[in-house]
Amino acid sequence: MPLGRLILYVRDVEATIRFYEKHFGFKPHRQEGDRIVELLAPEGGANLMIHPAAKAQKMGQALVKLVFDVEHVEAFRARCVEKGLEFGPMHQADGCIFANAKDPSGNSISISSRAFRPKSGGDEPPPPEAVDQT
Fold this sequence. Notes:
Mean pLDDT is 85; it is low at 122-128. The radius of gyration is 19 Å and the shape is globular. The strands form two sheets. The chain has a four-stranded mixed sheet with strand order 1-4-3-2, covered by helices on one side. A four-stranded mixed sheet has the order 5-8-7-6. Helix content is 16%, strand content 29%. By secondary structure, the protein is α/β, with parallel strands linked by helices. It has helices spanning 13-24, 73-82, and strands spanning 5-10, 27-29, 37-40, 47-52, 65-69, 91-93, 96-102, 108-112. The protein has a single domain (5-116), classed as Roll (2,3-Dihydroxybiphenyl 1,2-Dioxygenase, domain 1), CATH 3.10.180.10.
């Protein structure tokens, strides 16, 4: 069963919508009478549901990070800087490159090439079993 939606509790709904629309291509979908704005993923994947946070909720305290699959992390990061989104330093680990940032409500986000790394270590089917020829 695929993951379809993630809810982000935010203080500034409109700033959050603009952020994900501008930097990641999400398209807002609003329904009359609904306080949640659903951001539709541009190329499939999970949609983001932008929900106004209650006054008692602390921003940026969840132990969740949104990771966006980006084949060319360095180039994407450079384009984001031009649009005003600053990522932290580039990191290299386990055959991929990634960088981290925060959205306007302090939620952790990351861009990562992990989905594009060469397959190895259990992702391939096992070799065929040897045939006993005795």
